[in-house]
Amino acid sequence: MSQSLLERYDHEGVATLTLSRPEAYNSLSLELMQALHAELDRIADDLSVRCVVLRGSGKGFCAGHDLKQMLGEGEEAYYRCTFETCSRLMQRVVSLPIPVIAQVHGVATAAGCQLVASADLAVAADTARFATPGVNIGLFCSTPMVALSRAVQPKHAMELLLTGELVSASRAAEIGLVNYCVSESELDGSVQAMAKKIASKSRKTLQIGKQAFYRQKELPLSEAYDYCSEVMVGNMLIDDAQEGIDAFIHKRKPEWRHN
């Protein structure tokens, strides 16, 4: 991990990853996307981590792709590499075996908005703003559209994509892009409280649930029930389910083995 691009801090089962390009509003250079993907891979294998918080340094969360870098390169092969790297990164956020919370302040635009939409949960400062403004510069936000269209209803997604306008944190909460918004002074504490609550659960159970959530969404109703019934059978057979049920019955705190 490059300390100049990405910082990691672990505490009580929560890994906080901070995008660290404040001079560029944490825009997603190719190097930053590669660093973030590599760190998520490491976290996937780190059984001590049960929740990830993704945040930005400086004045904003993330302003999307680094357009200065992209314009400077100006070659098809580089553009292809950039967008494929971004697509793999967003899919890694979804496929990570533990929940990811986006902590948003300032702006989250274009691929930055995509990162928020890709996260499992999101909390925003009430001063935060969101947009997919590519249409304003002749570059439609097609890859951000993938995550956005899965996070909010179609007409809300199309409004963001077609107008390119900034929307408030309260509007983002209304349409389901973020879970809720809080004052700037409460943002860090609210996110950490949510992350701590999640981190108190069984890592194996979190992994089972997150994977099943995204898989069943793509299935017809009857197939989704068949699939999730099998998931619950498998879940019942793991050590932590037996421990959790026994702890509930005997009114004690469970001791997770995370398997």
Please explain how this structure is put together.
This protein is of the alpha/beta class and 259 residues long. Helix content is 52%, strand content 15%. The chain is built from eleven helices and nine strands. The strands form two sheets. Strands 1-2-3-4-6-9 form a six-stranded mixed beta sheet, with helices on both faces. It has a three-stranded mixed beta sheet with strand order 5-7-8. Helix 1 (30-44) links the parallel strand 2 (14-19) and strand 3. It is globular and about 60 Å long. The mean pLDDT is 96.
Observed structural traits:
6-stranded mixed sheet; Lyase 2-enoyl-coa Hydratase, Chain  A, domain 2; single chain; 2 domains; 52% helix; alpha/beta; 15% strand; globular; 11 helices; 9 strands; 3-stranded mixed sheet
Ordered list of secondary-structure elements with their pairings:
Blueprint: E1 6-11, E2 14-19, H1 30-44, E3 51-56, H2 67-73, H3 76-95, E4 100-104, E5 107-109, H4 111-118, E6 121-125, E7 129-131, H5 142-151, H6 154-163, E8 167-168, H7 169-175, E9 180-182, H8 184-199, H9 203-217, H10 221-236, H11 239-249
Parallel strand pairs: 2-3, 3-4, 4-6, 5-7, 6-9
Antiparallel strand pairs: 1-2, 7-8
In short:
This protein has 259 residues and is α/β, with parallel strands linked by helices. It is 52% helix and 15% strand.
Terminal Cα span: 28 Å
How would a textbook summarize the main sheet? 6 strands, mixed
CATH class of the largest domain: Alpha Beta
CATH architecture of the largest domain: Alpha-Beta Complex
> Structural class of the helix and strand makeup?
alpha/beta
Which spans of ≥5 residues are poorly predicted at pLDDT below 50? none
CATH fold label of the largest domain: 2-enoyl-CoA Hydratase, Chain A, domain 1
Which descriptor suits the 3D outline? globular
GO biological process, one term: fatty acid metabolic process
Function: May play a role in fatty acid biosynthesis and insulin sensitivity.
GO molecular function, one term: hydro-lyase activity
Keywords: Fatty acid metabolism, Lipid metabolism, Lyase, Transit peptide
